[in-house]
Amino acid sequence: MLVQAYNLMAHDFLLFLLFPYIISTNIHACKQTERSSLLSFALTLSSPPLNWTSIDCCRWKGITCDQDGWVTSLLLPSKWLKGGISPSSLANLTHLTHLNLSHNSLYGSLETQFFLSLNQLEILDLSFNHLFGELPLSLQSINIRTIDLSSNHFFGAISSSFFQQASNLTSFNVSNNTFTAYVPSSICLKHSSPFLRLLDFSSNVFSGNLAPGLGKCSKLQVFRAGHNNLSGLFPEDIYNATKLEEIALPLNSLHGAISDKIVNLTNLAILDLFFNHLGGKLPLNLGKLSKLNFVTFDFNNLEGALPPSLMNCTNLVELRLGSNNLEGDISMLDFSRLSQLTKLDLRANNFTGTVPRSLYLCRSLKAIGLSKNHLEGQIETEILSLKSLSFLSIGFNRFTNLTGAMKILMSCRSLHALLLSGSFVGEGMPSNDDMVDFHGFQNLRVLSLGYCDLTGQIPVWLSKLKNLEFLQLGFSQITGPIPSWLGTLPRLFYISLSHNQISGEFPKQLCRLPRLLYEPIASQVDKYEFELPVFDQYEFELPVFDWITIQRRQKLFSFPAMIDVSNNNISGYIPAEIGQLQLLQELDLHSNNFSGVFPDQISNLKNLEVLNLFMNHLFGIIPLSLANLNFLREFNVSYNNLEGPIPTGTQLQSFDASAFEGNLKLCGAPLPNKCRPNKDMDADNKNNKDEGNGHHQLPWFYIFIVLGFIVGFWGVCGSLVIKKTWRYAYFQFIDNLQDRLYVMITVPLNKMKRRLRG
Ligand SMILES: *[C@@H]1O[C@H](CO)[C@@H](O)[C@H](O)[C@H]1NC(C)=O
Ligand SMILES: *[C@@H]1O[C@H](CO)[C@@H](O)[C@H](O)[C@H]1NC(C)=O
Ligand SMILES: *[C@@H]1O[C@H](CO)[C@@H](O)[C@H](O)[C@H]1NC(C)=O
Ligand SMILES: *[C@@H]1O[C@H](CO)[C@@H](O)[C@H](O)[C@H]1NC(C)=O
Ligand SMILES: *[C@@H]1O[C@H](CO)[C@@H](O)[C@H](O)[C@H]1NC(C)=O
Ligand SMILES: *[C@@H]1O[C@H](CO)[C@@H](O)[C@H](O)[C@H]1NC(C)=O
Ligand SMILES: *[C@@H]1O[C@H](CO)[C@@H](O)[C@H](O)[C@H]1NC(C)=O
Ligand SMILES: *[C@@H]1O[C@H](CO)[C@@H](O)[C@H](O)[C@H]1NC(C)=O
Ligand SMILES: *[C@@H]1O[C@H](CO)[C@@H](O)[C@H](O)[C@H]1NC(C)=O
Ligand SMILES: *[C@@H]1O[C@H](CO)[C@@H](O)[C@H](O)[C@H]1NC(C)=O
Ligand SMILES: *[C@@H]1O[C@H](CO)[C@@H](O)[C@H](O)[C@H]1NC(C)=O
Ligand SMILES: *[C@@H]1O[C@H](CO)[C@@H](O)[C@H](O)[C@H]1NC(C)=O
To answer: How far is the CA of 148 from the centre of ligand 3 (A)?
Structure first.
């Protein structure tokens, strides 16, 4: 009895186990034609193997069939598939409703046949591949709901008839391709797409204006067409699409004003419109949009005051209004309720007043940009309640009390970038006495304190900023020497001390800046990005500003490795040790009192792109080895005392004559005066070059001694004679014996001639 029951149970259990198998083999048996279509698709892939070997294709990985054995879905996203997709094989899978091959490396053109045959498609996702081609005039599938062709290389126009039958379309993403012509706004026209929720046309080459139609998309939630070439007015009828949650049209050329009708878009959370030509005032009632959390209008032509209602947008996370013509006293604005605000950018406008105290209540703030306005007052201690503050840019205003500001800010633990240039004008550099018990700025990477006309010296407390990478102290009244400890700051790679009254010599220690010596170890490379892009004062004013530059300015590592001490009173030699700074990209020593020769070692700076030595007192020749500097794009040695031929056959000839002028004895292209074709110059050249390379001469000396012995009789006397000329030889570079003998005879002669002439 018990055994029987047990048997029965086991039998049932077996059936239970086999059931799905029986069902699937019986019902999902693959059609032979489908199988061969799939296999021909698999054949076009070069890797990896799909392991499609069993008889029943409905059980293959990524495949689903319907009850009749038709393949209905092919889902192979992110499978590292490579190969040229064959549209004809896929086109034969006529019952396909779901096709997802996103995030692979498929290439090839999707021919019209592909879209025409797959007339059952509901979901099509081919994003993140390398597919190309044009879209057909119309889509055959009336069931299509989702189309994602983003991040491929599709091109051409998208015809408005493409969507004619797509009445169930909800999502259409073609971003990051190279589509041209108009954005097909007609996609929203009556009866076409009542369900459309998401439209993404961004990062293409669409141009012209946005034709009316969007307002008809009554369910539209997300509309993106940023980073195209759109012009014309900001579309008026967009305010009728009241379900909109996101409007993103940055990086276009749209103009016109934002209408107060925007308050009808009560769900709006993202309004991303930076880098256009939008004008007018911000809508007075913008603040009624209580869900707003991300608002960018930077780089437009907005004018007028900030609407106070904006301070009612308690969900704001990012508010960027920089580089407009906004004005008004911001002291009165009450920021206190913006507790989510992390980034506030009001830079490069015409705002007046003081920093509103209520701003210090926005406890989430990570970045504050107020520079280039007409603000005044002092930094208050309350700023320390902003525990996450990492980026503070308040330069080019009329703030006062730099010492007070620094004493407060040094306790701001999270601060990474402090940009104060152009404020606190005419004050004293906070000295060490001012900063007693200095322990602060422990995380500071960027300190910009130029354009302030600060008096005083470079203060010692800077030597404690062990994380400092970028130091701007240019355009001030700083006196005293360049401190040698500057060379010990472990992460420093950008130094600008230009346009001051710095004196003394260029410290050798600066040639040991650890960050510029060797290629940093991969683990040390720190791809730090700022919370907001960092612009210098000129860049704010540039009329055209490209997206690449904006992105670059967001990254600390995109700034060049630079030492700029130009326009000071620095004297003495350029230390030969400069050659150690292998990673240096820009060296600017112009308009100082440097003397001595042009150091050969500069040729070791293989990464050098900018070399400005003009307006100094350098003499001697331009070393031939400078030809090693392959990346040089800016070079100027004018107004020194250089002489001899400009090394030929190098990049140096590509610079203007103006880069060499004002050196009376310099000759050869690109200068108009030709070098005299006698050996005179060569000898002088060699003469000069040797000063750095004297040690190479020693073997020659010994060779001469040996020769002297060989000559026998001359052995004793001869070597004495030669030894007499040895001091000479020490400064000469000779390629062969012939040359050397020639020089031994001609150089003294020439020298004598010159002395007689002079
Ligand atoms: C096919 O099988 C091999 C070995 O089991 C495996 O490495 C590979 O990832 C499989 N291919 C796919 C597409 O799953
Ligand atoms: C697709 O079907 C057509 C005709 O139905 C046939 O000629 C062609 O060979 C098929 N292509 C593939 C790759 O199976
Ligand atoms: C395609 O597959 C990927 C990965 O599973 C998924 O994230 C994506 O949402 C799918 N696409 C569609 C349109 O469902
Ligand atoms: C659109 O979708 C609805 C269900 O959401 C469905 O009933 C209808 O048949 C679909 N229409 C078309 C043309 O596919
Ligand atoms: C469209 O696709 C891109 C990837 O190519 C993605 O980043 C973007 O978020 C998608 N757009 C929408 C609105 O989901
Ligand atoms: C744009 O598409 C290319 C090519 O598919 C891809 O590599 C890149 O990541 C995409 N960019 C974005 C921002 O999605
Ligand atoms: C951008 O649009 C303008 C006209 O609005 C046109 O002249 C220009 O060629 C377009 N640029 C590109 C890159 O398509
Ligand atoms: C917006 O909708 C209203 C009524 O719903 C209509 O009168 C108006 O013409 C529409 N505006 C635009 C620009 O389409
Ligand atoms: C905005 O909404 C109000 C009522 O909520 C309505 O009267 C007005 O027509 C709407 N405006 C637009 C442009 O839809
Ligand atoms: C902010 O909202 C409050 C209450 O919601 C309202 O009384 C006040 O008028 C609003 N302020 C502005 C400037 O719109
Ligand atoms: C700022 O305001 C002044 C007058 O106060 C005006 O002359 C100037 O043009 C304005 N600048 C900008 C950028 O709007
Ligand atoms: C400068 O700021 C410090 C710190 O806030 C303050 O103690 C000092 O009184 C201020 N000095 C002046 C002249 O306002």
So the answer is: 9
